[in-house]
Amino acid sequence: MTLAIFDLDNTLLAGDSDHAWGEFLVEEGIVDAEIYRQANDRFYQEYLSGGLDIHRYLRFALEPLALHEPEQLAQWREEFVARKIQPMMLAKAAALVEDHRRQGHTLLIVTATNHFVTEPIAELLGIEHLIATEPEMINGRYTGAVAGIPSFKEGKVARLDDWLQHQDLSLEGAWFYSDSHNDLPLLEKVTHPVAVDPDPVLAEHARSHGWKIISLRD
Length: 218
Prior knowledge:
single chain; alpha/beta; de novo design (two linked rop proteins); seven-stranded mixed beta sheet; 9 helices; 7 strands
């Protein structure tokens, strides 16, 4: 079974869902606006530059989940998807996903963004399989910690390898679509690496290695 693997943020979406969730929290007054926005923007720039300390970032990003009841979080998430995610949806991305579906490929999102944020987005895209950073939950509440390996950089490869073993699948003939040089460890493992509206570092790497470069932006 051929895998079609997709990064999410700035690949299938015209924006970053993790950063957008932080903006939503600020706009709703759920977090301290000035302090949280500055930190959210700083971490995002560190991600873009390739210098993000993922564990430090996740301590920041997952803390709001630990401070509120799951029912309240679910209500906020529904509003977040409608206000922030729906406008990021791309017709060309939906068409690409559908093309792979028609070919009978197994569809999978692998993203560093946490599962709480990304689960409804994968559902919107009609993609059944999702590997995302897992927020720890104990006794029905988020703790603010991470469960297992964050699916970031080499962590994406590790999490995917584990998933493949459980699914009895392989990367033979697999596709992977991403915008970010942070995903080079996984792009270099698949048969068909595709740079999607790539950042400058990934664009240069893709050109020098003869990888396909596409745009899904309208």
